[in-house]
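User: Please run a holo structure prediction.
Assistant: Happy to. Please share the sequence and the ligand.
User: Here you go; the ligand is zinc ion.
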Amino acid sequence: MSIKANFAKLKTVSDMAWGQYAFSRDVVNNKIDDAQRREFIRRSYDCGAEEARRIKEEYGDLGPEMIAENMGMKLIEKTGGDTKERFMFGQFNMPNKISLYVDNIRKTEHMMFDREIDRSLDGVRLRDVIISHELFHSIELTDKTLYTSSVKIPLWRFLGYTHKSGIYALGEIAAMSFARELMDLTLNPFIFDVVLIYMKNDDRGNAATKKILAFDHKQLSE
Ligand SMILES: [Zn+2]
């Protein structure tokens, strides 16, 4: 299948399937049963959307960049950010720094256009998705009472000591949900994760697409 056809299909994937996909990449995934995982996914989507509504009420519907600036964030444009495993697109650093890897963002925008997948992506600006996504991470890292930062699961027990860990996937799901609500999108911005994988190479992009569509198929047949 062409990359264009893949994205047309990815656009129809359910929120739950994207959540399952996010969990499949989390090291704690095998410690969690399916019912628990579904609950985590639903509550993370709710958490992100709720925070976005709260922020819009407080700052107005100004768009991610202006909102970030009004919240005291410093947006720093960087070049580079290419590792063997993946390209970097954005990063949040305490207390208020959001780095944007502008070369990678620009290259990705060209790729989306050249390979005709931009229409499947509703013309959404990648830069805005990244700013929104990182903005959520800034909120969850400063508010320890937030759902995604408060959930901990026991990883191992030893001599009466229990080591507990947070769950990375929760923050990723909530950050995407936050971006969708903040930007009033109809698509699930998780789809951009796959765009970024295609930037590294087509084989990996195709493999990720296959895996996500399998999660979606599993949801539908249940
Ligand atoms: Zn993230």
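The chain has a mean pLDDT of 93.
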